[in-house]
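Recall from the previous lesson that a structure prediction takes nothing but the amino acid sequence as input. Here we apply that procedure to DUF2255 family protein from Nonomuraea polychroma. The sequence below is the only information supplied.
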Amino acid sequence: MTAWTDDELTAIGETDELDLASRRDDGTLRRPVTMWVVRVGDDLYVRCMNGRSGAWYRGAQTRRQGRISAGGVQADVTFEDADHALDDEIDEVYRTKYRRYGANVIGGVVNPESRAATIKLVPER
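The prediction returns the following tokens.
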């Protein structure tokens, strides 16, 4: 399994926003979507505020591959389903990292629908 380097984890984990472009069936990249990203241990996660019905989430399921850009790092990635045993921990990282936005805004990514649309970003090397 491919892993993020310590420098990549720090750079991406400390940035507020990540740009994610998923790949279409033909391999081309969709237009990037800006979203929040969190680091839990040695892994990076994103969530769709609109749950599994969100447009970018559905697009990400096409090939389960894409490209991210954040914190000066650009990487091709594979999208894996998150281990839902980590949902509470991922929720807590979102609450801590983005607390300045308030509970109402954070609630957009800390709810059952968003939990169901949690993606683990795995670097392709």
